[in-house]
Design a protein that fits this description.
35% of the residues lie in helices and 19% in strands. The chain is α/β, with parallel strands linked by helices. The strands form four sheets. A six-stranded parallel sheet has the order 9-8-6-12-13-14, with helices on both faces. It has a four-stranded antiparallel sheet with strand order 2-1-11-10. The radius of gyration is 18 Å and the shape is globular. The two termini are 36 Å apart.
Length: 295
Amino acid sequence: MEGLTTSRVVPVQVPCRKLSSLFANFSCLELRRYPCGGRVSIMNQSKLLRPVTASVQPQELSALGHEGNVVPSNEILDLWESVEAVCFDVDSTVCVDEGIDELAEFCGAGKAVAEWTARAMGGSVPFEEALAARLSLFKPSLSKVEEYLEKRPPRLSPGIEELVKKLRANNIDVYLISGGFRQMINPVASILGIPRENIFANNLLFGNSGEFLGFDENEPTSRSGGKAKAVEQIRKVRLYKTMAMIGDGATDLEARKPGGADLFICYAGVQLREAVATKADWLIFKFETLINSLD
């Protein structure tokens, strides 16, 4: 991001210097490691993983009581049909999994980390607090992350490939804005044809021996309100007139604000978070709903 010249590692405080800009090109990197008091190498982009389209069963509308925003108003439909850019959350939206939960489970700490994730996505604790707490429970090493990426291909939500293809065919720019990690999001972006400069996410940091150091705190998505900040920066630079944010969590809802997203669409095909769904402009359970509205 603009103006970032130093990075702080969380939870371990290690000064790290880097050069950054709003649309930095990450096309050649899969994992980034910053020089923190010694030599640190960089892992080249891994081979493209074959995606798995997961089967998701949307929850029954009769039990939800959200009929008011399941059927969008004409005003909301007009906004959607006029968007110039769409920002997607990744975990439980573009993909059916919560990436950090899956990595934690792979490392043997799945249950404890999933409990923190539920609290963070519901908005009951600051995101940065939950992120640091979750990582401290299992401290993934570089070798473990590499093994995870090799053995666990992305599981895409049904219809997301078709929706992104439709948006791009309509000359609508697509972004991925996530509190997850680039290490797991880069392969997803490659599958969907989304350029790396359109990814805003966190970074795991590793030392000379591949040991876990923390995460880059200067990424805007590492803290509460970070997704909103990312959307604001995108809009400021690209001068979009109308933008939409699509996601399932409280941090996605935060992106709908003056100067940010004009429209928040809650995708509940994986997780229905009541506190978020009730405040959405439009509640959907299948991406086909959005695809059909663009015809």
